[in-house]
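Input sequence (552 aa), recorded before submission:
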Amino acid sequence: MNAQTSINPASVLAADPDWWRGAVIYQIYPRSYQDSNGDGIGDLPGITSRLDHIASLGVDAIWISPFFTSPMKDYGYDVSDYCDVDPMFGTLGDFDALVARAHDLGLRVMIDMVLSHSSDQHPWFVESRASRDNPKADWYVWADPQPDGTPPNNWLSIFGGPAWHWDARREQYYLHNFLVSQPDLNFHCDAVQDALLDATRFWLERGVDGFRLDTINFYIHDKELRSNPALPKDQRNSNIAPSVNPYNHQEHLYSKNQPENLEFLARFRALLDEYPAKTAVGEVGDAQRGLEILGEYTAGNTGVHMCYAFEFLAKDPLNAARVAEVFDKVDDVAADGWACWAFSNHDVVRHVSRWNLSDAALRLYTTMMMCLRGSVCIYQGEELGLPEADIAFEDLQDPYGIEFWPEFKGRDGCRTPMVWDKGNTYGGFTEARPWLPVSLEHAELAVSAQEANPDALVHHYRRAIALRRAHAALSRGSHDRVQATGNVVQFTRAAEGEEIFCAFNLGDTPAEITLPAGAWEQLGGDLGSADVAATVGTLTLAAWQPCLARRA
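Predicted structure, token format:
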């Protein structure tokens, strides 16, 4: 394990109910992290065997994407049993062992709950579709056709085409915001909410520390099933769906984002509050109102603790002006809430490729992320600087990519196996043929190669995370207005009597900055921060250089 690792005893984990505030959370896509049994697919024992690597980064928690029983039409985001582990990934005993080992290493464990929809193979749906008068008949969103036989309204699926599918058994349509095989649960039914809260309690009793809530703003639909209005072309963007997807042509006024969702989140929060030091982060999928919804869902003590929107997961380059614009918006609509920032995850092109970042730029973005107000998610392999893998059409697994190929190649390019050993045929991930090919480009960036190189990116991540954890001003502090001047974004963080000035030159040419009045001392010298010791007034930042300074 890296010498810089600071491991907290497990007893500390339950002590701080606000541990999530400013936390760094490491996302694991279990199919692709480590295979322990030679079937080419990652699993829970594999994750457990690699927890030392994650702990060595200095992160606070892991978030594991779904491992529940599933037919895997959407690779685990189609759940057929919320309270069991799919045999592909192991057993409940394997999960318990993972939690115990993580806690021993000072890592909290968050799991991915998919509450808005289930698999069509879930026993609940099998019963619901059997007739119109069975005990679970209203557990899903069913509706009669219009007089001409067409769907009840114009709602669209984010995976393409209508959001309604005809079912001959009931002679009705059912709603699916995602795949046809992912019917939407009916949150207007109290029994559904109760059942999902029971499933959540099941995992709380097994010792999980929190939840990532998939598609949190999709839970509740308009009860009157009103059609969505068209969205003017100049208001469309591709933040949550590719531009070739007609989903972007609607203002999703009625198919999601309903005010009743706050009532369910209050119930969910009350359940979490029964247990010490638990948390939840919600994924807000909305291209127009993401930050506003983030503010609504995280304000006060009756919603989730934090949410992330897609502003920093977007395709457009993240320049200084955009960073300032996003934080101005957050200050306006979510001043009492809490954001969780990410540059990459399992649904978007890895940010190294998405923004075409050089090594120097990648390091600076990493440093900046660790200085932003909010919590942080980093995605497996991000600490290695893995670019998006190029997947041939015949190797694609993602139904989203298959549907919109070649204009949109889907999500497989960011889901390829983690690379551990440069000299291994499959990067140390497996001894068998993996479910997705291992990129040869990735193999050169394997963990073993980077650990042996003191200048490698993985060490930069450790140093940046350590800086964040060492200063309350960076992890939990307030900030003044985030400002952009040319390529430079700057702000000041403060907490517990400490004040830290942060400036980042997000450009490939030098830029001048003016330090705030007073005496300052350098922080982050090992991150390339400019030396302010002899500076009075102005300071020149080199291309892709930060300035981190603490008030003396």
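Checked by second reader. The chain has a mean pLDDT of 95.
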